Amino acid sequence: MGNLSYVKTPEGIEKKSFEIIEENVDKANFSSKEWNVVRRVIHTTADFDFANLLKFSPGAIEAGLSAMQKGCRIYTDTRMAEAGINKKALKELGCKALCMVDDPQAAEMAKREGITRSMASVMMAAAFPDIKIYVLGNAPTALFKLIELIREGKANPDLIIGVPVGFVGAAESKEELSKLSVPHIITKGQKGGSNIAAAIVNALMYMSLEEKTIKNG
Length: 217
Known about the structure:
Strand order of the largest sheet: 1-6-5-4-2-3
Radius of gyration: 18 Å
Strand content: 5-15%
Low-confidence stretches: none
Mean pLDDT: 93
Number of strands: 6
Structural class: alpha/beta
Distance between the termini: 52 Å
């Protein structure tokens, strides 16, 4: 049997993937920074639909970059999203990722109040003023609760990455988020997920590091 011919290096795979994406999506529909996010999400999912589903509120990317360059804390609604965030980039930016969905206090609060653990953990996260970016890729209930907290003046994030997935409440929660003036990045409809959430965070971190390097000469 002959040797199989295929791309073997991570750099080569990413380069070829980006070339394929750019051949199939008109990047002229996005700003250069938006395109970095869209391309990263499509690369993660192999799903070109995200070119139409990703929506950015005015100033959303800039708000995220600014918060990251100040070394903010980033809240995630799942351990999967937390695991998908690039730890090297986090460290270089001085940022930290936090997930409390499996915290015993969240489980206790959820049981006591008859809510999901995702809702309880968001309520707990609101007590940390240094959490500037909320990353919600799984639970629509968490996004609904965060919206409630913002409207009640109990949370004031710089950026919300709201991309919960599912058939119950996902599309509706993102539609509700789009009504807020808080900077946000969403996926319209039912599609989303923890991998999408992590991909968006990573794209923002890579841009933040690039800008930081330029500023520092």
